[in-house]
Amino acid sequence: MQDRLRRLPKVQTVLETELAVQLIQTYGYEDVADAVRTKLQETRERIVAGADLKDEQFCDQAVLGSVQSALKASRVRTLRPAINATGIIIHTNLGRARLAQEAIQAMQDVAANYATLELDLETGKRGSRHAHVEDLICHLTGAEAAMVVNNCAAAILTTLTALAAGKPIIASRGEMVEIGGSFRMPDVIAQSGALLREVGTTNKTHLSDYANALCDETALLLKSHTSNYQIVGFASVPDRQELADLARENETCLVEDLGSGVLIDLSPYGLPNEPVVRDVLNAGVDVVTFSGDKLLGGPQAGIIAGRRALIDKIKSHPMARAVRIDKLSLAALHATLDLYRPPNDPVARIPVLQALAEPIEDIHARAQTLQSLLSKQSGISAVVISSTARAGGGALPQQDLPSFAVAISTRNDSPDMIARKLRSAPHPVLGRISKDQVLLDLRAVAEHEVDTLAQTAMCVLLK
Ligand SMILES: *Cc1c(COP(=O)(O)O)cnc(C)c1O
Predict the structure, then answer these.
(1) Is the dihedral of CA 369, 395, 154, 296 positive or negative?
(2) What residue spans of 276-359 are helical by DSSP H?
(3) What distance in Å separates the CA atoms of residue 195 and residue 397, rounded to the nearest whole number?
(4) Closest protein CA for atom 3 of ligand 1
(5) Which of 114, 280, 350, 456 is deepest in the core (most CB within 10 A)?
(6) Nearest CA to ligand 1 atom 14
(7) Closest Cα to atom 10, ligand 1: which residue?
(8) Is 96 in the pocket of ligand 1 (CB under 6 A)?
(9) What is the rounded CA–CA span in Å between residue 181 and residue 102?
(10) What does pTM read for this prediction?
(11) How far, in Å, from the CA of 276 to the mean position of ligand 1?
């Protein structure tokens, strides 16, 4: 063993070889030296552990070969484009909404230049970043006032902190939602400093439960959209209008966390009604919160809209500053919201809505294109089958969307292995496994991605 340890090259010797000098030019001295040290240390540990290494594993070339691939791998960005063939349109782990071209352009324009972010051009004085989209949100929702923060979680936290810290709030036990990424309503409420009075039971909460829990100090009633689950059967909660009336009669207010929040009625596209923000406000809800990157189809953002006096109070709370939206997201949000105004047709322009509303024949056509590309290769079996997609993102939880998928298999790989290979590609492809088959669902795959998808699959599966 001692002998073999002695035969390991010195770090300095390896670094002086021609290949090392080339690597240093590309990756810099520090990174190459670190990688060489790590590699030699690994080899040393293997020898000590008793590994019987062959002579060629000791030479500079062998060490540098693995150093080169380690360096290359370390420079691949972990955040990079992927193909969403899961059939879940708003997939949180895949970055939710793809942006409309107009939104991408707006981000680019603002990113490359100085911008009028907080500047009142009339007076030349400091302006408000909320002002850019406030009128537009009010126009689209009927709200008196609005503001935008980093995401919907921040919107709820800021709203509760500003309106209810230190005071009781009332919410239904059946609406204590948990969404992904450890967002749990009771924890968010606790964090805000509001004192939660939970009323009702898991399946039933009556108006009288809220009424009995009211006291002089009650800051607000909180309603939450149960966006990723439904309680069915012997279940009910009071109508939001009744709840709004109760709040008003008792001189308190009703806040509703809508989660997804849609700006237009999606029923013409065969989708049942997610509550439309305008209708919710019309029913008397005082403040609503919703996401920018779910069914709205824009960038990550949290929108707070409702009565002016309440919004003003939230705007001026210090937490609003801590969770403020950045200029790129604001630019993208503005451009996305513009697409909801005539003469634009949001369903034709906003990718999330396009994917939701796309005619099934078009999805079938894409599935056939993919199938025929893959079938050109012997070794991959590809079959078009009907599939079920979902909106995702905590929206329309029970709603199945008809779709088509290509089921793929190879002679040697298990479905898990196929899924893993597709995931590990330079341009990762995410499918789903169903009934022991890998399915590539085409509903959330754009026309322009089909070629890349096919190339990737052929490349990683036939290696
Ligand atoms: C998604 C969701 C949120 C959180 O929204 P983010 O934009 O992810 O912060 C909050 N509440 C409900 C009901 C949701 O569905």
Answers:
(1) positive
(2) 277-282, 308-315, 318-322, 327-338, 346-349, 351-357
(3) 29
(4) 259
(5) 350
(6) 259
(7) 259
(8) no
(9) 30
(10) 0.92
(11) 16
